[in-house]
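Inputs:
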Amino acid sequence: MNDRQNDLKHHTLSVTVENKAGVLARVVNLFSRRAYNIYSLAVAPTDDERFSRLTVVVDVESVPLEQIVKQLHKLINVVKIVEHDPRHSVERELLIATVKVAVSDRHQVAELTRIFEGRILAVSHDALTVSLEGHPAKIDDFEDLLRPFGIAELQRTGRVALNKLERETPRVHAVSSAKSKVS
Amino acid sequence: MQLNGGQALIKALEMEGVEVIFGLPGGAILPVYDPIIDSPIRHILVRHEQGAGHMAEGYAHATGKPGVAMVTSGPGATNIVTPLADAYMDSVPMICITGQVGTASIGTDAFQEADITGITQSVTKHNYLVTRAADIPRVIREAFHIATTGRPGPVLVDIPKDIVDPTHPNSAMEWYWPTDAEVIAGLPGYRPTTVGHPRKIKEAAAMILAAERPVLYVGGGILKARAAEALRELAELVEIPVVTTLMARGAFPDDHPLCLGMPGMHGNYTAIMSMQESDLLIALGSRFDDRVTGKVPDFAPLAKIIHVDIDPAELGKVRRPDVPIVGDCNLVILELIKVIKAMQAKGTTQPDITPWRSTLSGWQETYPLAYEPPAEGDLLKPQMVLEALRDSAPEDCIVASGVGQHQMWTSQYWKFRHPYTWINSGGLGTMGFSVPAAIGAKVGRPDRMVWAIDGDGCFQMTAQELVTAAAERIPVKIAILNNAYLGMVRQWQEMFYEERYSEVYLSPDLPDYVKWAEAMGCVAFRVEHPDDIQPTIDKANAIDDRPVVIEFRTDASEKVFPMVASGKSNTEVQVPEFQRLAAKTAAASEKEPRQ
Ligand SMILES: Cc1ncc(C[n+]2csc(CCOP(=O)(O)OP(=O)(O)O)c2C)c(N)n1
Ligand SMILES: [Mg+2]
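Outputs:
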């Protein structure tokens, strides 16, 4: 729990790799052989199916991180690495959780989910499955508030990140590309 | 053209210009051994797969071409893990082909199955598990490309049996040979930088011309980049002294007036201290290894650093450079020379570095490499054996060594005058390296005399490859410095564990090295008396049709000096006792007023 608050040491790397068997193991191995714990990891193919994108959140000081990034670059199947500065990136994560609640208390969980703008996915006599997508810090808060009700199962995806759009040019770019679609 | 996977594999190796494979067959790799019979590629049958790996390394060190080893699945593959790790540490280009169980059996704990790509992931530059016969030519091309470009290293290719077995439908394939462009396009994440950044090179040139106490700190990368000639031109152009690390011995001639020799834990006093006192280290293909730097915060405290390496991960790994340059050492040095010449032509001058040169030569005079000659009746001193071997060998003789005291003495006492004449296991420090590495070197350079300088401990780890050498008529020469001990470990126990010797005694005559060598088809001699050293070496050097072994009985109490103890600062370098006392007396008498 405390670890999560300490975002200073968290570094988010976005690693584009060739979409091939064994590549994930190679990436993960570089962290494990240095005894660095991977805090979260999300993997999925990109829009170009030859490549996958890994989003790795790792707790490490900046100096060893620089070395790890260079070592990652040395992997033949790693194509590109971007480090996301939290101030200049959008980060999102998804949580789904099943909460054990008696019928009498159900409305409290429903209320909480509504406040966080989450969704109720399923309901049964004594349980509720909810989901929430959002910034990892918001997800942490939601998880903390759900806990007293009794969490039966909980799963988080690990975070994914993209760089924030710049104020000026990219908007113009977005507009012009939208235009060209119209014409 | 229709081929089966096994034929395609051998044909791909032929296309890559492979002239020799070191290997040993077994069940899973059997189908690949059949087309070898019809191939012009020479196969050398080793007696242990570790031998195949080190032979491939020795071949690569001596020729600059990638060494190729081929072994079967399971135990064959695990036996070659040590050489792969060795090649990875010392950036040796090497291709290792392993057999694997059939694709349908992978992951079922089939007979002789080992997850060799998993096992070798962190000791190879890259590895492949090939699952379709059609991929074989492309993978072999990629493997050679990766092994030999950028920072060289070992690449393992794991081949399941069904895709090479002509009786299996999975082995059918249509032959093709990818173009260079296809290979590069197929490796989107692999683009080594070879050309140094022009602005950084200008900065480096300006720093070099401004330095008062510069040192060229040269590592094994110079040899990998085949930059020995360029290095010499640079050193002479600016008259900067050169230290050559253990991996770079021979990259700059030892008899050159600018050569300071080897730095590091067992380097010579002048080479070590030159770095400590330097105001500019020009690190070329070197990696600030702990054996060179000693205690890192105390290493070269006054020096600015220019660091040139083809591997960006080396820059700033240990010591943050003032001028980092990613690139091929040869190209970068040639550019540096151009820029320096242009600056000189425009009138830039260097500070007078004669005071620096005279400081260095003062150290060289006071603290040369030295040992005390044996008293009458003592065992041989290893250093004097090495001097005799050195002085009796042609200057282009290739020397391989094992790991231990004998390795350090060889590096210290040999005079290397040419690149690619020194072959050793520097990064991993693999005992048993020398015999197979020497055999591989001799296969690659049959025109050269090849000596392996080995320890008694090391020899016992891979001696069986002398059977290979005898059977294949590979006339290598082996000198065993038999001190009856795991000498290097004994030295540490003597110096740092209060002479409590734990598990380091080996016995001088068990085994009987002469009988053993003879049983393996070698000519063998034993030397116990100083008078026999030279005549026996002469006899060995005259033999050119089979391997020769000389066992020298050497003094176990002899220690390697100078020495920087592990974790200590380089300034705490210890020289031999007699030299320390002599230097003290000399300093005292200089202070005495002259009458
Ligand atoms: C495979 C392996 N095991 C252990 C060691 C540790 N080690 C380093 S030097 C050495 C002693 C080598 O003995 P020997 O070959 O007789 O050489 P000497 O030091 O006596 O010259 C040992 C055991 C090693 N380097 N490699
Ligand atoms: Mg010994």
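Remarks. Chain B has three domains: 2-185, 198-366, 382-553. Chain B touches chain A at residues 117-118, 121-122, 125-126, 129, 146, 187-190, 311-313, 316-317 (CB under 8 Å).
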